[in-house]
Design a protein that fits this description.
Blueprint: H1 3-15, H2 18-24, H3 29-43, E1 48-50, E2 55-57, H4 59-91
Antiparallel strand pairs: 1-2
Helix pairs in contact: 1-2, 1-3, 1-4
Length: 102
């Protein structure tokens, strides 16, 4: 399961429209839809009901999106923690070892 597909599912749940959800990720609707279909195959459930007029979350979709939000928050938090630690490491002044200068 790809993190990007989880992001797409969350966006589709917010927009309830493939075209608008795809635009938010700067991709065309067809490849966006393929990501959603692949995710549905991976979990073995329909996540979204599609009609010609609307998109609706299924109960399985509601569960997946709720869990995906938690996973994505953790992933984003992890990425920020790593960036913060790298910034902090850059701010530590270099220490010179006295034994090396002899």
């Amino acid at each position: 399961m790809e993190i990007q597909s989880l992001r797409y599912a969350v966006t589709l749940a917010e927009e309830l429209h493939f075209g608008r959800a795809a635009q938010r990720h700067f991709i065309a609707a067809q490849p966006f839809g393929r990501h959603i279909q692949r995710l549905e195959r991976e979990v073995g459930r329909r996540l979204f009901e599609r009609t010609s007029r609307k998109v609706v979350l299924t109960p399985a979709g509601e569960r997946l999106v709720a869990e995906a939000r938690r996973v994505l928050a953790a992933v984003d938090g992890l990425a920020e923690a790593v960036r913060s630690s790298e910034r902090a490491a850059c701010d530590i002044p270099a220490r010179r070892d006295r034994n090396l200068s002899r």
